[in-house]
Structure formats: C-alpha cells, structure tokens
C-alpha cells in the first residue's frame, strides 16, 4: 500500500512540473503500559501514519506533510510543497542524491518481530507488574516505586524518489524498564534499569530487570563527596556512549558547514590513541540501525569512522556533502550501527587498571560546547580505591575538553551495553577535573 501511494504521489509531483521529487511514508502501531506501586497507571494504544513530500524545481525546494491519506489531502500536500518551492531562493546544494548512488541490493536484517502483547494489554500489564514486584521484593530499603513501563510497537516505512528508487523497511521494537526510590528524606536515591530489543526474546526477564533496578538504587545510598582534584575517570558503558555521541555531533555535516564544531578540518587527524577504532556496520542482523540505504536512498556500506586513532571521514548526507565540496557518506538520517574497539576485558579490569579515581554511572546537564569542545557535566557514581568500589558519590562535576579527553582514553572494555546502535563498553579517560568538596 505505502509503495503504491508513494508512486502515485511522485506522479502528481511530475505532473505539477517538479524536476525532482521524493516521498516518505510511514505507518506505526504500538502499545504502552505503565504501573506503579502495584496499580495500573496508563494503558495507551497508538496508530500513527504520515506522508512527507519534497519537490525540487531546479535548485528550489519545498516540503509538506500530512497524516490524512485521502486523495484530496494528498493532492493538497503536493500543491503546498510546489507552492513553497516556487517561492524559495535557489540553493546550489539542494536536490536528490545522484541516481548512480541509489541502493540496488535491498536486504532484510531480521528486524521484524511483532510481539503478541501489543494486542493483549492484560499480559503487558502482568509483565510490568512482575518486574516492579521483583524490584520491591529485592531489598527492604526500597521504599517506593517510580514506575515500571512496557512498550511495544512496529513500524513500516517506504522511501521513494523520482530516480525510480523505492525502498521498503519494517521493524519492531520492545522495551521494559523499572525505576525505584530507596532511603528517606534528604537521603533518598533513585535509579533504575531497562531492557530493549527488536524481538521480545532479546529482552531480559521482567524479574531480572526489577531486581537489577533495585540493586542499582540501593547501591547509591549514603553517597559522599570527593575532594576537588584531577583524577582518572571510568565512564560506565551507557555513559561512554554519550562521549561517542559528542564525537558524532562534532563530525556531522550540519555542524561542519555551519563552522560550529571543534573538529573542523580534522579528517585525517589523529584524535584518539593508536589502538582505538570505530567501525560503521549497517548490515548487522537485528541491529538497531541496520539498513541497505540511508534517508536519501543512497546505498550504505561498511566503513571505518576512526581507524588507528585517526578520524577517517565525516558523517554526511548529500546536502552537507555538497556544501563542503565532498561526497556523501550515506549517512543522511544519521549513522548506522557503530562498533567501538575494546582493549580490556570489562569494567572490573578497567577499575583495577585505574586504581584510584571515579566511576561515573550518571551524567546530568547539557554542559558541552560543540564549538570549543569544552565539557562540564554534573555526575554521580562511585569512588574507587585500589581498583575496588568504595562508596557512592554524587553532587560532583566532571570537566575537561573533548579533544583532550579523546586523546586521553586509556581503555575501553568489552562490556558492551547492547541497548543502542552505538556499541561501546566502559571507557577509562586518563585525567579529568572533578569538582567536589573544596
């Protein structure tokens, strides 16, 4: 249905005089439930669909969208896009990706696994309640629940353009997570845990999720401050992912052509230690961001983003590539699955190697300057002595400069957090300023 709809819309665009056109259609369904303290809080079923049309009249571009699939609404959407294009200025970088770049080998990546609970709210509620009850029973210091949520959904999508390209994608995604509160008064602490997967069997058991959430919450009780100083810092796997995210933001085409990145003109430059690497792997089975083509229909390919510590390339779609005088890297719409090289067994090995310092398990605030690379964020975690965790820590700030932090990475563990398309383990940064007690 969506493919046929896309073809009809492209024909409307051609009839309206557009020199090029592209259409994206999607249809999503889902169910989400939340429970707290053994009671159901919300049950919400969703069904969304939409169409986005972009037309080009030479180098002028116009876009419009609608959620109404009625013929009259679709015709009006095309007319609106054409009207916008006729009244915009020429942009030499606009237009479809070159026809020769379109993907021809369209694959499946084992990403379609609908979960029957989408049509069985009672079972979804039972699973959420089981996770919450396991957490509440795990430790008497758990005084309250901050809720447990289960979500499940499927998505169908089609991208088509006037080069004759039609790409179809379908995927499912499911999640279950709990959060708890331990302690009382000013000593209360909150934490949680969640599991996510494309197939229901990839999720952790509800009871395991609840227990782990409770354990993480209790572990944070009676935190202390640490003396302000310069210390090595280990970022847990889920926090290390954010450091990779800052790299991606700095080498994204939009930031580069706007001159709003601390990594301008850095392709071919050593930013990391020689052993460090990041590979983009778009063809992984059950990968969160697997795909044969990007958001412009360009064929994806396996390639290195960082190799032997050297930044190999930027992250570009066609528009940003043209603005920079470069070629697209098939990253319109973002990166696909990333795999970060590891040189250590896991978190325990990194802590032993660090000896004395800080383990960060939570980051707060938005204190990152993408233009200068300056980094300053609120943090919580654990103080480490002799390679062993001694006590929880909160109310501190970790600071540095991202370029210096990248160069100071001493280790990455094999303890990959599987809940993201950025696959990275815990990360040891050799020295950062930690602001705690005077």
What are the SSEs and their pairings?
Elements: H1 2-15, E1 20-36, E2 39-57, E3 60-66, H2 71-86, H3 121-138, E4 142-161, E5 166-182, E6 189-197, H4 206-219, E7 229-235, H5 237-250, H6 253-257, E8 278-280, E9 303-307, E10 310-311, H7 318-324, E11 338-340, H8 347-354, E12 357-364, E13 374-385, E14 388-401, H9 402-407, E15 409-412, E16 422-423, E17 427-435
Parallel strand pairs: 7-12, 11-16
Antiparallel strand pairs: 1-2, 1-4, 2-3, 4-5, 5-6, 7-17, 8-9, 8-11, 9-10, 12-13, 13-14, 14-17, 15-17
What is the N-to-C order of secondary-structure elements (H for helix, E for strand)? HEEEHHEEEHEHHEEEHEHEEEHEEE
Number of strands: 17
What class would the helix/strand composition place it in? alpha+beta
Straight-line distance between termini: 65 Å
GO molecular function: metallopeptidase activity
Pfam family, one: PmbA_TldD_3rd
Protein name: Metalloprotease PmbA
Keywords: Hydrolase, Metalloprotease, Protease
């Amino acid at each position: 249905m969506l493919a046929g709809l896309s073809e009809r819309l492209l024909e409307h665009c051609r009839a309206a005089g557009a020199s090029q056109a592209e259409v994206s259609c999607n249809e999503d369904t889902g169910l989400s439930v939340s429970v707290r303290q053994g009671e159901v809080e919300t049950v919400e079923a969703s069904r969304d669909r939409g169409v986005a049309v972009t037309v080009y009249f030479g180098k002028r571009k116009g876009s419009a969208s609608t959620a109404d699939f009625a013929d009259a609404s679709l015709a009006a959407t095309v007319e609106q896009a054409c009207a916008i294009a006729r009244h915009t200025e020429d942009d030499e970088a606009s237009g479809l990706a070159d026809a020769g770049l379109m993907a021809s080998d369209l694959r499946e990546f084992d990403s379609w696994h609908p979960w029957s609970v989408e049509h069985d709210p009672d079972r979804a509620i039972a699973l959420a309640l089981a996770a919450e009850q396991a957490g509440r029973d795990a430790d008497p210091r758990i005084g309250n629940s901050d809720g447990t949520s289960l979500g499940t959904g499927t998505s169908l999508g089609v991208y088509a353009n006037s080069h004759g390209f039609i790409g179809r994608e379908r995927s499912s995604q499911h999640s279950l997570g709990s959060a708890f509160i331990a302690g009382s008064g000013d000593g209360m602490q909150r934490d949680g845990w969640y599991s996510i997967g494309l197939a229901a069997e990839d999720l952790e058991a509800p009871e395991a999720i609840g227990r782990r959430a409770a354990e993480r919450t209790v572990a944070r009780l009676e935190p202390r401050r640490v003396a302000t100083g310069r210390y090595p810092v280990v970022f847990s796997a889920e926090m290390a992912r954010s450091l990779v995210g800052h790299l991606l933001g700095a080498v994204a085409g939009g930031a580069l052509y706007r001159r709003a990145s601390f990594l301008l003109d850095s392709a071919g430059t050593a930013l990391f230690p020689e052993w460090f690497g990041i590979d983009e792997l778009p063809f992984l089975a059950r990968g969160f961001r697997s795909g044969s083509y990007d958001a412009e229909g360009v064929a994806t390919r396996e390639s290195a983003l960082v190799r032997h510590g050297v930044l190999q390339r930027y992250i570009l779609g066609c528009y940003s590539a043209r603005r920079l005088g470069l070629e697209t890297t098939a990253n319109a719409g973002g990166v696909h699955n990333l795999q970060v090289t590891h040189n250590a067994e896991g978190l325990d090995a990194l802590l032993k190697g660090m000896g004395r310092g800080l383990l960060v398990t939570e980051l707060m605030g938005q204190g990152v300057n993408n233009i200068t690379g300056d980094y300053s964020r609120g943090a919580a975690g654990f103080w480490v002595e002799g390679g062993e965790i001694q006590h929880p820590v909160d109310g501190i700030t970790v600071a540095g400069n991202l370029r210096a932090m990248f160069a100071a990475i001493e280790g990455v563990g094999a303890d990959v957090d599987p809940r993201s398309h950025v696959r990275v383990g815990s990360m040891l940064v050799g020295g950062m300023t930690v602001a705690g007690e005077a």
